[in-house]
Here is the input.
Amino acid sequence: MTTKAPTSNASKQIKAFIKNWMSLVGLIILIVVFSTLSQTIYGQQTFLTIKNWKTILLQSATLAIVALGQSIMLLTGNFDLSLGRLVCLTSCVGAGLMINSGWGLLPAILVMFAIGIIVGVVNGIMVSYIGVPAMIATLGTQYICFGVGKLITQAVPVPFDTKSALYKSFSWIGRGYWLNNTLPICVVIMLVLYIGAQFICTKTKIGRNLYAVGGSREAAFFSGINVKRIHLGTFILGGILATFGGFVLMARLGSVAVTNGQNYEFDAVISSIIGGVSLAGGKGYVLGTMFGCIFLTTLFNGFSMVGIDPFVQDVLKGIVLVLAVVLDILSNRKKS
Here is the structure.
């Protein structure tokens, strides 16, 4: 009996780790699989290269910033389908003001974030105070954001002059590197945001309130938590992070288009679920969402490397979403 107890405890700890950090475990498996495939197919390592991983991390960073807001909303039992189009709208407004209207960087940024906050407030009021279902409310604002973005740009890409002093003043946030041109600055920003969010969600009263609201709104209400204010706050935070993601994406690409942020809202949900954040709310770690974003980007980077058709990749993305949701539902059912 005494020899079995440590083994049993170790087994439980391993199972708990895999369950809580499924995205990290999955990412490690993907790295092993695709590095082996690249070596087998091309006779050399094309996957585990610094250049390829720079690309993966750069693509993951902007999505992860947006997904952070989505995962915090999911913790409270809500979600926002307008985040991807909000990335489009705010970046189109910012670029339009700077390029077409001659505004400076700071005023344009302030307008961008004001729009992000306003959209978050509108979504939050509709869902929290009026009682409109989150899917309907945020789907409506999704179309509004996309429509306004198309009006501003006329559905034509708006490029920056990448040699101008204006663009150089903020391009570093999307194109800059540290550690001898190795570590992208936007990846460092992503890490700082997630580490800070993980600390707040797990070590502070605000975080405990988020989990409490997601676990049971009624119980949280009778415990003295202002549930409506919590929901409103998460929608505003989602708007702010989507705007910041749009700014980083604009800085990295050096242009804006109505395709900026396309499907980010769905990729953010997929990444959050893969990262262990439950659709039912009140469960999961936001840090897992970051690994979920890297997992998703790595998965499709690997698919492209082995020559899978992009249209087939869209089908596979849908399959990944369905599997993630099914696993989440089965996990919650087992817990119940």
The chain has one domain: 57-327. Strands lie at 158-159, 177-178, 183-184, 255-256.
